[in-house]
Amino acid sequence: MQHEVLQISPILIPAINEQLNARYTVHRLYEQADKDAWLRTHGSRIHAVVTGGHTGIQEAVMAQLPQLQVVAVNGVGTDAVDLAYARARGIHVTGTFGALTEDVADLAIGLLIASCRSICSGHRFVQDGQWPLHPLPSAIPLARRFSGMRLGIVGMGRVGRAIATRAAAFGCPVRYTDLQAMADVPYTFVADLVALAAQSDALILAAAAENAEGIVNAAVLDALGPDGFLVNIARGKLVHEADLVAALTAGRIAGAGLDVFVDEPHVPPALLHMDRVVLQAHRASATWETRTAMGEMVLQSLATALAGERPAMSLTT
Ligand code: 8YV
After folding, report:
1. CA of 54 to the centre of ligand 1 (A)
2. Is the pTM of this model over 0.70?
3. What 8-state DSSP symbol labels residue 137?
4. Ligand 1 pocket, 285 CB below 6 A?
């Protein structure tokens, strides 16, 4: 018997999709016009789910899959999966832990340099033919140096550590906050987020979003101050987005580099045309190398779980 797999969000690596198709009967829920009707009719046949980090799967969907054995998340964030429900049913929920660390850290540094050095607005100035019209160097405001910036990292997990390692090469002192101080990192722990922001030139969010909704609010942004930058490569909901828009609009912080938003793919309109804001469409892990490694981990988790064993990357079993 071939196991039946429900894919809730696409995998972008053809070789991984070929493997999925070769091993299983794969149903792509995102291609169904009426997803609820499809689940009602076919849900009882599904043994495994593949989903994305920010797509996840809700209890209401899992409840329609009585044979479900594993939810393989093609990502590291599991905030969009109902873990307690999965645990209660003995469903393995796996992630691709470790596979995307380097790429996400790279983008965090890239977004910070892009925003403090005004790379995107400089690009637009040249691209739009403005340079010959305004040839004096004074046409473009001076930018802000990245090397040596005091970084405050929120979340000293795999990604936070990889960001800190990169920052060291730029001579940036690193402080961090997390649920607790960590004995195995050489950086200064600051328990309070407002205090961390006050001691930082840039705050980089690399934390899991469970129980941390809106932690970056007006008080934190005001502590970061008018010369401070915010970078978010974790989850949009860590930030109180209305407070962020207000702070950027009023110049109460200097700029931001944002890969993630509260209501993706919708970005607050006020952020779309700010020179001091660099935007990405949730792309931090979107390289061939990382997505291939992630896809291989998804295949491995499915194979192990459907053979009746516990996948190494399971969070719930
Ligand atoms: C995923 C993410 O790569 O890992 C996560 O939690 O949010 C993303 O970077 C994306 O969900 C693709 O599945």
Report:
1. 6
2. yes
3. G
4. yes
